[in-house]
Amino acid sequence: MLLRMMMVVMGRGARTTRPMEYRVAQLEALGRFLEEKKQDILEATALDMGKVRRRGAGNGGDQRLEELGPAMERWVPHVEGVLQATRLDSAFIRKEPYGVVLIMGPWCCPINLLLGPLIGAIAAGNCVVIKPSEMTENVEKLMAEALPSYLDRDCFAVVTTSTQETTRLLENKFDYIFFAGKPSVGRMVMAAAAKHLTPVTLELGGKNPCYVSDTCDVRSVARRLAWGRFFNAGQTCVAPDYVLCTLEMQEKLLPALQKVITEFYGSNPRESPDFGRIVEGKEFQRLQMLLRSRRVAIGGQMDEKDLYIAPTVLVDVQPSDPIMQEIILGPILPIVVVANVNEAIDFINSRERPLAVYVFSSDDKVWSISRVLERTSSGGFCSNDTLMHMILTSLPFGGIGSSGLGRYHGKFTFDTFTHQRGCLHRNMGLEALNTLRYPPYSQHRMGIVCAASGVKHKGSCTLL
Ligand SMILES: *[C@@H]1O[C@H](CO)[C@@H](O)[C@H](O)[C@H]1NC(C)=O
Asked: Per UniProt, what is one GO molecular function of this protein (predicted)?
């Protein structure tokens, strides 16, 4: 009820959020929040995600704030060319905010996936209701307590809700919803949005395959792969979820991965300040179940009290195993053996479309890389590395099919939260010319209309 009242106020407030200076001022305030609360943000994420020294936890995956002011000035007043037929008129696209946007953050990138979209929503001139994930309670608390004192309270609000309350929150009529999280919750969000015909962006993550061809520099592959898989203890939506390679490559990859894990996290990763913990007990138990099924080639140690799971590699994995049925979101890397690149492609295509496809190959002719790229479909793609395509703000980022809907990052985030209103300013003069388009119609008149509007199809003429 309170929220509904607030949204009415915010909806009206939408006019105040439009001036460029207002948007820039709010973004600057957000910048101050990130700067002044850097330590608190690091501590809150560390408390939620284990004792990780998280470098650059602030605004990593999106446009840098200071670049946004000038960029916005280029993006907002965008006028398309005037139509040929109406030289006295002017046609243009007005970039308008949707109104009140709801941003629901996930627990796996609790800062980036909340503030990245927020930046775009502010830049586009919207009012925003921000809902951090209830699973990362320290980040949630910090956002609820600290962020409102930086942003304009009339137009930006942080709400904290339990799972049941989230259902009620979604009963409200928002003008746009950005959701990042689990596919099952994504379906719920989209169903709730459908009641009000509210457009959505869904970032759902995916079971991202990584094909490693027989020809590659195994040591570098192991480093890039382990970094992507074990970053944040595997809890990122874009992490390589499993490896596809030949048995021959698996035999080379295993010792290389073992070596790299030791280099990264020492002989006991549990003591490493750079290796994270599982977000909470229920997630830990889910991962524990997944781990049970197959042969552990590397790691496998667990401690429920500490929510610790060692960097783990599984072999002899079958496509029907539980670990191959869901997104892992943990520090576990299964290797599925395939005979060749064609079998790897078939394997990828027999499943839901992932958020990312990764391929490593040193083929001179980049044969396997382009073959996988051309014959598969996924939200994004990166060859010879993992995660890096997500960091480039010039690339749109988002899923396809069950890995999500819509795209964002950099200007794409601005576009996500912007309605492109197609507008035409007509001239009231030359009314005589319009006579032709009004009824009653005759064959003769229609002929002239067709000629004038330049629409000439054989034997037919459609106006509008
Ligand atoms: C992948 O890396 C290998 C080895 O450096 C290189 O030969 C190949 O061209 C790269 N592939 C692509 C698509 O850039």
From this structure: aldehyde dehydrogenase (NAD+) activity
Q: Are 101 and 419 in contact (CB under 8 A)?
A: no
Place of tokens 């965008």: 78
**Ligand 1 center to 450 CA (angstroms):** 55
Kindly report the length of the chain: 464
Rounded distance between C-alpha atoms, residue 204 and residue 349, angstroms: 18
pLDDT digits 0-9 by tens, 88-143: 788 888 899 999 999 999 888 888 889 999 999 999 999 999 999 988 899 999 99
Tell me, using a 6 A CB cutoff, whether residue 366 lines ligand 1. yes
Class of domain 208-392: alpha beta
Active site residue 237: yes
Q: Is the pTM of this model over 0.85?
A: yes
Nearest CA to ligand 1 atom 5: 362
Q: List, in sequence order, every beta strand (DSSP E) within 279-395.
A: 295-298, 302-303, 308-309, 312-315, 332-337, 356-360, 380-383
Residue 29 Cα to ligand 1 middle (Å): 43
Distance 365 CA to ligand 1 centre (A): 9
- For the chain, the farthest-separated pair of C-alpha atoms sits apart, in whole angstroms, at 89
Q: Which atom of ligand 1 is nearest to the CA of 384?
A: 1
Q: Decide whether 2-204+407-419 matches 208-392 in CATH topology.
A: no
Cα 302 from chain centroid (whole Å): 30
Average pLDDT, the chain: 87
Q: Which CATH number fits domain 2-204+407-419: 3.40.50.10780, 3.90.1150.10, 3.40.50.300, 3.40.605.10?
A: 3.40.605.10
Closest CA to 373 of 382, 365, 362: 382
Give which of 264, 289, 298, 324 is closest to 53, Cα–Cα. 264
Strands 356-360, 208-212: parallel, antiparallel or unpaired by DSSP? parallel
Domain residue ranges in the chain: 2-204+407-419, 208-392
In the residue annotation, 165 being an active-site residue is answered as no
Using 70 as the pLDDT threshold, list the residues of the chain that sit under it. Answer: 1-14, 50-67, 69-70, 77-87, 364-366, 445, 448-450, 452-464
Q: Which residue's CA lies nearest to atom 2 of ligand 1?
A: 362
CA 165, 199, 24, 70 torsion-angle sign: positive
Selecting among 108, 127, 210, 237, the annotated active-site residue is 237
